[in-house]
Amino acid sequence: MDMWEPYIRATQARVPDAAKKIVLIASTSWACRQAVNTVRKQEHRELMESGDETLKAAVPLALQPGDVPDGGGTNSTHLSAGVKVGRAWAIKEALRRLCTTSYPASGLKFWKRWYFWAITAAAPMKAAAERSQAHRNI
Asked: What's the whole-model pTM score?
């Protein structure tokens, strides 16, 4: 579900035990994709100052949900060339695994580990994680 408050309130008003059933993963995933792109832009500017254009071709991939395409190529260079953007990408991808957890307790444990990892990353990833944390206990 989206993190928009009217959606959350409407669900809580009409669904029994809604707080136990609401999952805000889609909005967090979107926020993480945007954060990866912001980190990529920041790191690209830093690299360009030294004449390094490695991250120039990484724009489309930074915004895509999903794994790096087979064969890698120039679109995946940001995973190894940019330390910050590579870490941001890994954090975004790790969040996708939350949907594969079968039990609420294991999902919560996974999310707590993911959250700690995300808040220790670049500022845009930290902001996305904190946004998710703010809505965790609806």
From this structure: 0.71
**Long-range contacts from 16-21, C-beta under 8 angstroms, 24+ separation:** 18/138, 19/137, 19/138, 20/104
What confidence score (pLDDT) does residue 74 get?
Answer: 40
∠ CA 12-18-22, nearest 5°, is 105
- DSSP 8-state assignment for residue 13: H
Which stretch of DSSP H or E encloses residue 33? helix 25-49
Catalogue the E-assigned strands of 1-138: none
Q: How far apart are CA 102 and CA 37, in angstroms?
A: 30
Gap between the terminal Cα atoms of the chain: 12
- Which residues have a Cβ under 8 Å from the Cβ of 98 and sit 6 or more positions away? 25, 107, 110, 111, 114
**CA 10, 16, 17 angle in degrees (round to 5)?**
100
The full set of domain ranges for the chain reads 5-134
